[in-house]
Structure formats: C-alpha cells, structure tokens
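RETRY 2/3 - previous attempt timed out on the joint model. Re-submitting the same 649-residue input unchanged.
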Amino acid sequence: MDHGKASPLSRLFGRSPFEALTEHIRQVDRSADLLAQFFRYGSESNWERAEALYREISDCEHEADNLKDQIRLNLPSTLFLPISRSDLLELIEAQDKIVNKIKDIAGLMTGRRMQFPPALLGSINDYMQVTIAAVHQARKVLEELDELLESGFGRNVSDMIEDMVVELGKLEKRADNEQIDIRHKLLDLESDLPPLEVMFLYQIIDWIGTVSDRAERVGARLQIMMAR
Amino acid sequence: MSIIAQHADILLLLACIFGFFMAWGIGANDVANAMGTSVGSGALTIWQAVIIAGIFEFLGAWLAGGQVTQTISKGLIHPELFADQPHILAIGMLAALLGAGTFLMVASVRGMPVSTGQSIIGGILGFALVSLGFDPINWSEIGKIVLSWIISPILAGLIAFLLFESIRHLIFNHPNPAAGARRYVPGYVFLAAFVIALVTLVKGLSHIGLELTTITSILLATVIGLFAAGIAGLLLRRLDLSEEALASDRYRNVERVFGYAQIFTAATMAFAHGSNDVANAIGPVAAVVNVIENPGQIGSESPLAGWVLILGGAGIVVGLATYGHRVIRTIGAGITELTPTRGFSAELSAASTVVLATWFGIPVSTTQTLVGAVLGVGLARGMRALNLTVLGGVFAGWLLTLPGAALFTAVFYFILRTIFV
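RETRY 2/3 succeeded.
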C-alpha cells in the first residue's frame, strides 16, 4: 500500500529532456577534439592511429544518436515543458548535424588516406583550430541552458547567452575567412596536384566549413528558444 | 428520542473513535502531500517536516478549523429535517465517517489518489439521499463545494504564476540575485504570515472565547506579519551570501535563501491543511455531539465544542507521527526537481488558496490545490517537465469519489440502522 505513489504530486513531475540534451552536446564536443587529433595523425601518415580515432568518432556519433532517440521517444504530448516541443527537437537536430559532419570528414579522409600538401598544412591547422573553437563555444552556450531554466528564463542569463552567441558568430566568420584563404592557396597549387585529389581536398575544406556553420546554427536555435 | 438516550454513550464513543480514525488517516496520508514539497526541495529534513507539520496542523485544526466543520456538520443538509428522529442523523453521520474512511482505504490500496474532503461529502450525500431523498438536500451548498474543487487548483495556479513571475522579475533579473533575494523574501514571508493570521483571527477564535472586530483582526494580523518578516530578515542577514566564484553556482544562494523562506511556507501549508481538512474527520462528529447534547433542538445554532477540534487535531498529529513520515519520505524523494524558489511559490499560493476556502467554510483538496499551484509555476516557465496525465487522474477522482463514498455510506447506514433502531 504505497500511498506515496498514489499521490498526484508524485506523478506530476516528468522526466525532463534537458539532461540528455547536455549529454548530447558533450558527445559532439568530444568528437571535435578527436577530429583534431585525427588530423595530426593523418598528416603524419600514421593511418593506424588515425583509423582508431575514426572509430572513436564513430562511437561518439552513435552515442549521440542514441541520446537523440532517447529524447525524441520521451516527449509525449502530455509532457509540459517551458519551451516548445518543436524548438527542442530542432535544437537537438542542429547539435546532431555537427557530429554527423565531423564523422563524414574523418570517414572520407580515412577512406582515401587523404593528406594535405605541406604548403597548406599551417593554414589547415588554423582552420581546424577555429572550427573546433566554434564547436566548443556551441557547447558552452548549450550548457548555459541549465542556468536559463534555473532562472526561469531570467534576463541576466538571456543577455549572457546573447553575448556568447555573438562570440560564436565571430568564430564562424573567422572560419569562413580561413576557408577563403585556403581555397586561394589551393588554387595556386592545384595544377601541380592530381585532379581527383584536388577535388576531394576542396570537398573536405567545404565540409570543415560546414561544421562551424552548424555550430553557429545551434546558437541561433537557442536564441529562437529564448525569444518565444 | 429514547434511542438517543439509550445509546448516547455508545454513539458518542463510536463518533469519537471513527472521527479519530478518519483524522488519523488524514495525518497518515494527506499531510504528506502538504509537506512533501518542502522535503523534496531540500528545505526541510523529514523529521523537521514532521515536527513543523505536527505543531501547525494542530494549530490550524484547533484555531481555524471551525468554519469548515460547521459546513460539514450542518451546512449540507437541513438538520431540522431530523427533528423528530434525531437518532437517524447521528447514525447517518457515523455511517458517513465509516463509508468515507472505507472508500479512502480501498482507493489507497488500489493506488488511486483521492481527497478526504470529497470522500466525506460523498458520504454525507449518500446518507442524505437514502434517508431523505433528493429534494431536502442543500444542493446549492453542494454545488458551491463542487465548484470550489474545480476553482481552487485554478486559483492556486494563478497566484503561483504571478508569484513566480514576481520572483523572476525582482530576484532572478536582479544584477545580484542573492542580494535581491535577501531584500525581497521578508516581503513574501510577511504575506504568508499575514494571510494565516488574518484567517485565524477573523474566523476561528470564537470557540476559545476570543471575539475580535474585523479592524482589530486586520491590524493584529499586520503586526504578526511584520513580526514574522522581521525574524526572516534577521535570519537572512546572518547568511553568508558572498558572490559565487563559479558562474554555474550563481543561483545557488538564491535557492538557499528561499530554502529558509520555505520553512515559513511549510508551516503555512501545514496550518492551512489542518484548518481545512480537520473538518473532514470532525464535522460528522460535531453533528453527532450536537444531536446527543441537544436532541430536542436540532436545527438551532449551537457553538462548536472545542474539544471536538482538539480530537481531530490530535488524530492528525498521531497519524502523521506513526505513518505519515513514511509517505512524506516517498513523496519528497520523488519530487526533487522542485527547487526552493519553485516550492516556495507553489506552497504559498496553495496555502493562501486553501486558507481562503477555509475562510468561506468550504472544504477543498489541499493536494489538488498544490498540483494546480505547481502547474501555475510551470506556466511561468519555472518547471522543467510536468506530467499532464495527472490531471486525468484528478478529474477521474472528481467523478468517482462522490458516488463511491456515497455507496459505501449507504451500506453502512443500513447496517447501523438495523443495529440501533
């Protein structure tokens, strides 16, 4: 005769999706750090280690998918949340796209044993740094969600998140600029390199750019959530 | 009338036993809902909750429980109708106690949440229907009460919404939230104390011989409120609220402040619950006492015997101490997402609503009012995830409790009548 369970008060509180959301962005963040290491091993032609890292990135992506499913399956319409259901789902989708792209990059480079021409290595490193910084910033922004909820969407936290999103935008802009710079440099070198390899180099440069774009998207989604 | 004289002692004894039993049930199950929010948020330990509840439930029952008791014992049916067969009224009230108590037990075993107030109303209704038929029942009073069951959660939700919004604007949006909390929380404590004091003074103290004018009551309540706020202010001043180094702990101090404030609202909650719910156990007892002591003058205004309220209060406290602490533990463990700021808002709103209902002599469900309050906080975007299926259960309770308790009561009524008449 468990009277506690019978009380409507006990059944009133549902499982919130916000923990899984933070867990998810941590997986995304981890995959970005792994990608940096992956690049290092790739440039050293240490493909054995690089492949091992690709598998770890793949695990991150898999784990992220699990968390995403977990959230989606635990959002019945009878659950009352302080944010709209669709905003939440869009946010997790935006986060998930980041790690998907990271996995694609590592996958393609592993498959083709891709290496960058030595002349571009320095720029590529800078490009990667900024991109990963953008992902880190996206994670920081997302982790403020907890504070946002605690303050009941108070203005202090909202303003702080706004500032962080602006910072995220700046990082994305820098990544864009780095991309333009690298493409110029590759343009000068491309006639001396195998054409197929060049095409895939452009592909990877493009995809890395997408990662920081998608990181910025996460910030934008959070802004939308706060605005409503 | 001779039946009354014949069986007066037994009837009185049975009334006291059944009444105490009902009160015990209220203390064992219902109080946990009122105090669970304070334990869940971490503002109180279980035993602190039990002690505070014990003191304030009793005070609420004794000092302010009179109005609702009168409603239940006399307001639902016109007692004059039993003038020539007062023993029927006595037996009927006993049956109502038994029927409601049994229904509560059956519902609990089946894991269904039910309200003691709704059960006893159902019980009295059942007795009235089988003994008097449809017409003589005070349907307007019943209608008013049923309406209050629906309105009280909504009202509590509205107040909670406004309260949490105010906390958000005054404190969470403050450049230094912890300092804001220290400044404004005494104001909220004033509200809590003022509300309780006012109701007690205006409505409740006549049976201990204290009659006050409304103006005096308001002034006295204001003084009591300021006193409580003063104590709160002093306690808060001694709290160390240095700026948190880590941004993630920014609101920890705010929650600490409200944790202390919740001690006041927990007491308010217990008081409100005691004042409103004691009548569910004692209303019928009061009716029986009335019949036995004045069998010839059923309908006349008779003062409520003070000891009846004490009996009820004691029953609640015993129930709380013997079993209630276990239920508080269970409920408290399950609602830890209710941080002090939220728990405070919900409790203050629910307690105010219940106390308002007590003022008008209307029995409401403290638990359902609290649920309404929490939903109100949720609407103010204060809660992370609330399960709306709970509302279905509450609604089902409304539909099932009246007929269910009425049915059990009718059965007991016929049994008792066979025994005594």
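The first strand of chain A starts at residue 79 and ends at 80. Closing ticket.
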